[in-house]
Amino acid sequence: MSTLKDSDLHGKQGEHDAPGGGWQSVAATEKHFLRERVPWHGNRLMLKINQPDGGFECPSCAWPNPKDPGPAEFCENGAKAVAWEATAARTTPEFFSKHTVTELREWSDHDLEKQGRLTHPMRYNAETDKYDPVDWETALRDIGQQLNTFDPWKVELYTSGRTSNEAAFLWQLFGRMYGMTNFPDCSNMCHETTTVALPQSIGVGKATTTLEDFEHADAIFIFGQNAGTNSPRMMGHLHEAKKRGAAIITFNPLRERALVKFANPQTPRDMATNHGETISSQYHQVRIGGDIAAIQGMCKLILEADDRARENGDKPVIDHEFIEMHTDGFEAFADHCRSLSWERIERYSGLPKESLQQAANAWMASERVICCWGMGITQHIHGGDNVHQILNLLLMGGHIGRRGAGACPVRGHSNVQGDRTVGIFHRSGEKFLSKMDEVFGINCSREHGHDVSLCCEAILRDEVDAFIGMGGNFFRAIADQKRVAEHVPNLKLTVQISTKLNRSHLIHGQSAYILPALARTERDEQAGVVQKVSIEDGMCNVQGSVGQLEPASKHLKSEIAIVCDMARATLAPNPKVDWAWLCEDYARIRDRIEATQPETFPDYNRRLEEEGVFHLYIPARDRIWNTESGRAHFLFPGNVLAEDESKPNDPHFQLLTTRGHDQFNTTVYSYDDRYRDIYGTRSVLMMNPKDIEAHGFEAGNIVELSSVNEDGIERKVSGFRIIAYDMPENCLGAYYPETNDLIPIGNRDQQSGTIAGKSVPVNIRLMNTEEVEEATGRLATA
Ligand SMILES: Nc1nc2c(c(=O)[nH]1)N[C@H]1C(S)=C(S)[C@@H](COP(=O)(O)OP(=O)(O)OC[C@H]3O[C@@H](n4cnc5c(=O)[nH]c(N)nc54)[C@H](O)[C@@H]3O)O[C@H]1N2
Ligand SMILES: Nc1nc2c(c(=O)[nH]1)N[C@H]1C(S)=C(S)[C@@H](COP(=O)(O)OP(=O)(O)OC[C@H]3O[C@@H](n4cnc5c(=O)[nH]c(N)nc54)[C@H](O)[C@@H]3O)O[C@H]1N2
Ligand SMILES: [Mo]
């Protein structure tokens, strides 16, 4: 079925190729609405997206809304996410009666979710191996009773980042009252690296930029982030910045189409010509894991230029005054960069000195620099060190706390940042916990609980009794997916609070429930009044979201109602926490959030009502550094080049796992990746043509990948077709989540525990005809 042209070199987007965005983007949007049979009001629905006055927030990515949103403030992939959620298809009890769980396990991720919205609470029946409908009361009573028999520390409460602030706050309140702090969160697979490393540098773990800064930046550096697919509304801002003459410098092993050239669907001129604007003024195809060497190489050039300027009595190149007043560790960092040899820098970064000189020149020519980063930076064994080097680059020029400059981690799920702000954290600090105790008259445990990796390891040790997922698709999104899945049947209870059928429903404990939740696009009425929830975008703006659509089924409950009912079924009554009363009016929950964090959320409800959206205070924007020393720090790992996970001389390859243009994480909308010219399949292995030849392969070969690790456990995935791809040597690319079996759970950022999905050491083996036939048969169904 694949339409791949094997001889072609994929991903080689150049100046003359079709841009990202453009008419193809409009066509794709329409196609997805049609396919999901979203009723005619679908288009009207899209006028309500990302509007502060009573609209709903897009359930896709966390990119912020502009101050004055246009009438159609959405992108192609936001529209796909809405169409997917608002679909006319339904996964009913009748569907479940026709298929055993064993049978469904053979289905692909795409086919599972394609069945449409879940309509009823369901309970697993071991005798028939099917899910049966169950009423809410029975389900919640049983869950509550079971929870009361478990050791709370053997229970895991997961959160995925679509959950609203209100639901997430109650979720962690429930967990803390139940008596534990096991709060694995999707951010532990995502920007946890940033959340841990950024405060070490500047005292805060969030973006120091606002959208307005993008209007004033002279240079925007983009490290390891595929904006055209994963935060397409960012493209409009890059497009504007480029037009006004800002330099855009991208570091990415893959030439991602929209970052090369983009036609803005919101700009008539681009649409008339469909030519688009060149986006990246420089595109550096860094080796996987080579960013540390690349940045330190740039810093070396900048420092040397500064030395020369000083000798000649010219204007300094770096911001000495800022460094002196606000930072420490500069001299040690500078010495380190000076001591690096070009041979090493080039070998580890995979980039020639001239390229890094160009990037350094752009930095030196800019008064205001923004650095953005995504999963290509965070999902590495040295992810924290990556983040620190980006910050060093900013600090050297005083680019924090200056208009048009700053640090911009581009976050993933639409409310992943807010969930963490309101208290989803397995290691919360004393300040927050003592407030929780005071406001709710409880006694929160100070023990540290589990994040995602620790939760997986506990499951592998058979030390978990129950897993409850507030959204997401945990058992598919994690590393070491297959190994963990093998232990899940040992759990006594699994509960998934979901909108659509996914693999995590099929990897279940002895007793298992699927609880169907209202989605963000849907009207949420409590006590006869339509409720608003709130979310925080990736640049710290908190705003309301009011669902517009008729719920997919009358049996759905809001996430908030589900938490409240579960808490009531589980916990002994507490006069200070009236769950039913909180559920009646979500403003009451916001009042409690404010009470526990008065400095972060002053006047929460009033501001949400009157201002529609408000920005959370980020001290680093005022050059206030909440670090121990009160200063910003230049941090670097002493011998990282020697120890870098991406050793250029290793016999094996480094694999990056990434997203295609038609997916949202584990949700696969289709098998096409238009921006990479890959159609009809996701079982591909992107590989440099020289490597293909040197290893005796040919494009089109079907191969097996096995990971290289120290624990001696065999991890393999098979049936991947090699495609020649424009990417650095020794590097490979493949899609997530299809490759998640390959990643050992120990393969994670050393500081934050974030899954290192971008540095997976692997070997490749050619499959023989029989194996290929078997694998193709399997892939045809899976
Ligand atoms: N449509 C859509 N939108 C999404 C999502 C989605 O799946 N679909 N997911 C959401 C979520 S949860 C998240 S976290 C974000 C993810 O958004 P991104 O951060 O863009 O995530 P990825 O696609 O995993 O990969 C990022 C990029 O890193 C590059 N890369 C890989 N390794 C390296 C490296 O060593 N160095 C450098 N410099 N680059 C590298 C890859 O080539 C790729 O272009 O998007 C969010 N938005
Ligand atoms: N190898 C590799 N692994 C990775 C990554 C990678 O780049 N490479 N990326 C990681 C990242 S960045 C992330 S964030 C995680 C993602 O991990 P998750 O957040 O756990 O996964 P999603 O695929 O976003 O979850 C999709 C499911 O969420 C449910 N859902 C959707 N909307 C709602 C809602 O409004 N309410 C409720 N209750 N449920 C809803 C649906 O049932 C759907 O099937 O994966 C991580 N895993
Ligand atoms: Mo993410």
TrEMBL record:
Keywords: 4Fe-4S, Iron, Iron-sulfur, Metal-binding, Molybdenum, Oxidoreductase. InterPro entries: Asp_de-COase-like_dom_sf, MopB_CT_YdeP, MoPterin_dinucl-bd_dom, Mopterin_OxRdtase, Mopterin_OxRdtse_a_bac, Prok_molybdopt-oxidoreductase, YdeP_MopB. Residues 653-718 form the Molybdopterin dinucleotide-binding domain. The keyword tRNA-binding does not apply. Belongs to the prokaryotic molybdopterin-containing oxidoreductase family. Gene3D superfamilies: 3.40.50.740, Dimethylsulfoxide Reductase, domain 2. The keyword Metal-binding applies. Its cofactor is Mo-bis(molybdopterin guanine dinucleotide); [4Fe-4S] cluster. Residues 1-23 are annotated as: Disordered. NCBIfam families: Fdhalpha-like. Coiled coil: none annotated. One of its GO terms (cellular component) is membrane. Pfam families: Molybdopterin, Molydop_binding. Residues 117-525 form the Molybdopterin oxidoreductase domain. Residues 1-18 have a biased composition (Basic and acidic residues). One of its GO terms (molecular function) is molybdopterin cofactor binding. This is FdhF/YdeP family oxidoreductase.
